[in-house]
Design brief:
Number of strands: 3
Radius of gyration: 14 Å
Helix content: 55-70%
Number of helices: 7
Strand order of the largest sheet: 1-3-2
CATH superfamily: Winged helix-like DNA-binding domain superfamily/Winged helix DNA-binding domain
CATH topology: Arc Repressor Mutant, subunit A
Largest sheet: 3 strands, antiparallel
Distance between the termini: 37 Å
CATH class: Mainly Alpha
C-alpha cells in the first residue's frame, strides 16, 4: 500500500527534515549535507530510502545531482500539513534558516570533492 510506504519513510526525523527542505526547493546532496550538518553518506542513505519510496526524484546537471519531491508528494495537501506541523520545532526552523544561508551563497557554491 502506497500510504504505508510513505509513512515508513517518515519514521525517521532526518527524513522529515529533508522533506521539509525539499518543500522549499530542490537541492543537491552537498548543500543538503551543509544544511543538516550530517555526513554525506548519512544524507545519501536517507535520500535513497526516500527515492525508493518514490518520495523524491533526481535531476542531474553536469556533476551534481539535485533532489526534489515527486509531483505526487509535493502536491499532497495532507502530507504538507503533517510536515508543516513540525516547522515550529527548533531543528526545523534552524534548517530553514541554514537553507536560506546556503542559497545566498549559491552562485559561489562549489560542492566539496569527495
Amino acid at each position: 500500500m502506497r500510504l504505508v510506504e510513505i509513512f515508513k519513510s517518515l519514521g525517521e526525523k532526518n527524513r522529515i527534515r529533508i522533506i521539509n527542505i525539499l518543500l522549499e526547493t530542490r537541492i543537491c546532496v552537498c548543500e543538503l549535507q551543509d544544511v543538516l550538518g550530517l555526513a554525506q553518506v548519512t544524507v545519501s542513505k536517507h535520500l535513497a530510502k526516500l527515492r525508493d519510496a518514490n518520495i523524491v526524484k533526481t535531476d542531474k546537471e553536469a556533476q551534481r545531482v539535485f533532489y526534489s519531491l515527486t509531483d505526487e508528494i509535493s502536491t499532497n495537501d495532507e502530507l504538507r500539513k503533517i510536515i508543516f506541523s513540525y516547522r515550529d520545532g527548533e531543528v526545523f526552523k534552524s534548517d530553514l534558516i541554514k537553507l536560506s544561508e546556503v542559497h545566498l551563497q549559491k552562485n559561489d557554491y562549489v560542492c566539496p570533492k569527495e
